[in-house]
Amino acid sequence: MLVSEHIGQFFLDADGTRDRLEYTEYGGGDSWVVLLHGQLMPRRMHQPLARSLAAEGFHVVTLDLLGHGRSDRPADPQAYSVAAFGSQVVALLDHLGAAQAVVGGTSLGANVSLEVAATAPERVRGLLLEMPVLDNALEAGILTFSPLLMAARFAPFTINTLRRLTRPVPRGVVPFWAGIGLDTLDQRADAVAAVVHGLFFGRIAPSAAERRAITAPTLVVGHPRDPVHPAADAALLAGEIPGAEFVQARSILEWRVSPERLDRVAGDFCQAAWRSPKRRSRRA
To answer: Domain AB hydrolase-1: where (predicted)?
Structure first.
């Protein structure tokens, strides 16, 4: 089934700065779903899932958070935090005129979705979380991103050279996920350093107490044998949020290369979230 697709943008004004954020809408209607990408990845990573959900009647939006994809990339670490990203999602909903949405994402996107649920629970119809990054991922995250931060700060030519080499490759002539990899390598060293720095030294996710207070319907997808996103974190989160459902992927790559099962699980979850009565937040 073909669905309409539309690219849009909006602007954030704060502290004398103006930042542009870009998004893509799939489908239409009032059953909104917002999908958020992983760290340093583009929103296009969620294009297959967005098209699948839109074909089921959902109005799906994929957003490039600040510093990612085709959104602006300021070189100021103070511009980047999970809290700031959560505010950007709320600003997107305001821009679209969406009172509520199922909010979800992968890795960083999952953590940002949790932040939205903790700070603006009245805007969240449900949470669709893949590979959240919590306590069990701390050491692996440091080992993964510290070298990247050091390279971006002290050997910026490495990041900028990769950008010059990968940017000219036409995305239409390579397989989809190879194109996503090329897009992920299309970085500026100063912006990469700022993003990683901001996330390293800021709040990475809502506290356990805040997570236990979430009342939105929640689906958590965990991966086996994934050191950066341990399944233990996903299972822990599913145990903390009342009534959350935990689904284990068959492998790290299942949702990327053989998505039918998890697309169906996600579609069923979104249908149920939008059928269920609107919940009052515990804060209210």
So the answer is: 32-137
